[in-house]
Amino acid sequence: MTLLHVEGLTKRFGGLTAVDGVTFTVYEGVIQAVIGPNGAGKTTLFNLLTGFDRADEGSADFEGASILEMRPHRVVKQGLARTFQNTQLFDNMTALDNVLVGRYSRTKTGMVAAALRLPGVGKEERLATEYAHRLLRLVDIDDIADASAADLPHGTRRLLEIARALATEPRLLLLDEPAAGLNTAETGVLAEALYRIRDTGVSLVVVEHDMGLVMEVSDEIIVLNQGRKIAEGPPLLIQKDPRVIEAYLGETESEMMDDA
Amino acid sequence: MSGRVGTRVAVAVAVALAVVSLPLVVDDRFILKVLTLVGINVIIVIGLSLLFGYAGQISLGHAAFVGIGAYTSAILTARFGWPWLAAVAVAILLAAASGLVLAIPSLRLRGHYLAMATLGFGQIMFVLFVEFREYTGGPDGLSGIPDPSVGGFAIASAGADYTLVWIVAIAVFVLAGNMVRLRPGRALKALHGSEIGAEASGVDTVRLKLKVFTLSTALAGLAGALYAHHLGFISPSAFSLEFSIVLVAMVVVGGMGSLWGAVVGAVLLTLLPFLDAIVPGMPREVSSALQDWQAGIYGMTLILMMIFAPGGLASVARKLTRRVRQRRGEGDTTEGDTT
């Protein structure tokens, strides 16, 4: 089943075309990676799809809804969530409360209802809290639920941001460099978490530089270079694709061998 | 667990009753008047704390909304003979409506623009309070504002007025306290933590900012209305930029993101110029010096807080309790706390 279909997506910043006519499809139940050298347009692609930036051309159809015109919170409500290259956690709150904010679009309690503790408010709060704890367990960090987000180590913060994104009940989750700054052990934990997330029925699109992780977890890889899609396919074929080796891996061949 | 919550509620109710029934013990009119003023400022600062302390949106013109509430209620009752409750309701609505009208264009902007817009709005309102002589009495102010009354019962004595204001203040505190612990309060804090993160979590940040700004200005309007009927006289100087800044100082001194902090900040900074009335035997010279240097003292307090306790008194209290708990932990085990 098709989840997301992107057609001819284009974004220009002045004279630079950051995303140039990109077309691709994401299917249900897959982990798909987007790779490419720095400046290839990966993060811009995510920003366009999640309402943080406006596309110049193209379309994006997510489960029958055209999402390019939507503001970020509307995209979330549609079932498309994301994380950020520089984590955007709420450092003034506990880990649990961070995840609870992720429940915002799936819960109802308004200011008046909350102030007056109207019937149903307590129950919704209890259910939301249980839901949040379940997600913290899913990414294996429930032990730090009550810690301040600001005090958490980098790897835990990345997992927490994923848990918060999952709290919005996405059908598709976009992860922007989830392994950046993680050590080998932490990357292992992350990979396990990604599998568990996929097994709950959430599809994943992962922008990542860690080739080891990309080759291990992804079912399908899209390669961007200078805003254009230059290749697409399963990891084994991508590794051998001459266009990829030339345009992307070729320039840092030795690095690629080290990573992979 | 439920027993502990029960005890807490019992203690809270006892404290609230004690605060509200203070006039049974204290009959000094001046002290009651000062403490009524404290209650009024508590209401404003809770509203400002939701906006600034929780959601991180600064307003440098909150005195103007207090003024709108005060003049609306005063003019409707004194000039047009409206009943008190109806006048207060309209005062709240008008303050909230002006808040909304100001917020719609300015909250779309980020960063310091809201500070600029509210600052400008405050100055404009100040000029309007002075220039609309026909209704506001101009710089001389507006007198003859009637006491609060409901269905023929006038709340005339200083004690009754005190009790009325503090019942409202405590109600506002409890309602705001409920709100900040649940979904809307978490979203407000999220705005402060990371606006991008809040949007990515499904929060309509524009809408939420409008809501909290309107709520905050509604509370300012409510407090203004209470103020007008409490004093029976209002003049523009009470709603100047200086008061707006004092209000911000109260939030900062108490602590961002803490309603208790807001209350403590409001109580301390409101009492400061009246120390001679509260502390018996304080020389007149000291208290008059305090009044003369009021703005300077607030300014210095703000600077010192920013340097030594940027989290406000609330964070100092949190740190102290944590330290005490750790001490106790070390006393119990030989290894001590590992964290």
Q: End-to-end span of chain A in angstroms?
A: 31 Å
The number of distinct structural domains of chain A comes to 1
* Helix-residue proportion of chain B: over 70%
Report the sheet with the most strands of chain B, covering strand number, pairing sense and barrel closure: 2 strands, antiparallel
Q: Based on the coordinates given, report the CATH architecture of chain A.
A: 3-Layer(aba) Sandwich
Low-pLDDT sequence parts of chain A: 253-260
Read across the widest sheet of chain B, the strand sequence of neighbours is 1-4
CATH fold annotation of chain A: Rossmann fold
What oligomeric state is this?
heterodimer
What's the helix and strand layout?
The complex is a heterodimer of chains A (260) and B (339).
Chain A: E1 2-13, E2 16-27, E3 31-35, H1 42-49, E4 57-62, E5 65-66, H2 72-78, E6 80-82, H3 95-102, H4 111-116, H5 121-138, H6 154-166, E7 172-176, H7 184-199, E8 203-207, H8 211-217, E9 220-225, E10 228-233, H9 235-240, H10 242-249, H11 253-259
Parallel strand pairs in A: 3-8, 3-9, 6-7, 7-8
Antiparallel strand pairs in A: 1-2, 1-4, 4-5, 9-10
Helix pairs in contact in A: 3-5, 3-6, 5-6
Chain B: H1 2-20, H2 29-54, H3 62-78, H4 84-106, H5 113-131, H6 133-136, E1 142-143, E2 149-150, E3 153-154, H7 158-181, H8 183-193, H9 195-200, H10 205-231, E4 233-234, H11 241-254, H12 259-271, H13 275-278, H14 284-292, H15 294-308, H16 312-332
Antiparallel strand pairs in B: 1-4, 2-3
What does this structure look like?
The complex is a heterodimer of chains A (260) and B (339). With 260 residues, chain A is an alpha/beta fold. Chain A has a single domain, classed as Rossmann fold (3-Layer(aba) Sandwich), CATH 3.40.50. Helix content of chain A is 40%, strand content 24%. Chain A has 11 helices and 10 strands. Chain A has helices at 42-49, 72-78, 95-102, 111-116, 121-138, 154-166, 184-199, 211-217, 235-240, 242-249, 253-259, and strands at residues 2-13, 16-27, 31-35, 57-62, 65-66, 80-82, 172-176, 203-207, 220-225, 228-233. In chain A, the strands form 2 sheets. A 6-stranded mixed sheet of chain A has the order 6-7-8-3-9-10, with helices on both faces. A 4-stranded antiparallel sheet of chain A has the order 2-1-4-5, covered by helices on one side. In chain A, α3 crosses α5, α3 (95-102) runs parallel beside α6 (154-166) and α5 (121-138) packs across α6 (154-166). The two termini of chain A are 31 Å apart. With 339 residues, chain B is an all-alpha fold. Chain B has one domain. Chain B has helices spanning 2-20, 29-54, 62-78, 84-106, 113-131, 133-136, 158-181, 183-193, 195-200, 205-231, 241-254, 259-271, 275-278, 284-292, 294-308, 312-332, and strands at 142-143, 149-150, 153-154, 233-234. A two-stranded antiparallel sheet of chain B has the order 1-4. In chain B, α11 packs across α12 (259-271). The longest helix of chain B has 27 residues, at 205-231. Chain B is globular, with a radius of gyration of 21 Å. Mean pLDDT of chain B is 88; it is low at 331-339. Chains A and B meet through α2, α3, α4, α5 and α6 of A and α7, α8, α9 and α10 of B.
